[in-house]
Amino acid sequence: SDRFLHFFHKKSKQQHFDVVQYNTLKEDLAKATEALRRMHHSLFADASRGIQ
User: Fold this and answer.
1) Cβ-based neighbours of 46, under 8 Å, separated by 6 or more
2) pLDDT class for 7, splitting at 50, 70, 90?
């Protein structure tokens, strides 16, 4: 909600919390997690077909 975002950004500034860097790291984590999920899925799909 707008109230939460206002509060969050206000407190972030008070605590010298870099919201942009936080968002970037969060996006990078999501991308890495998705890449690992795809690799895991691919490995098990290959194993079920008998490919090593």
Assistant:
1) 52
2) very high
* The pTM of the whole model exceeds 0.70: no
Helices of type H across the chain: 2-14, 19-48
Count CB atoms within 10 A of the CB of residue 28: 10
| Cβ–Cβ under 8 Å, residues 19 and 9 | yes
With tokens 């919201």, the residue in question is: 19
For the chain, what are the domain ranges?
18-52
**19 within 8 A of 12, measured Cβ to Cβ:** yes
pLDDT, tens only, 14-49: 999 999 999 999 999 999 999 999 999 988 887 777
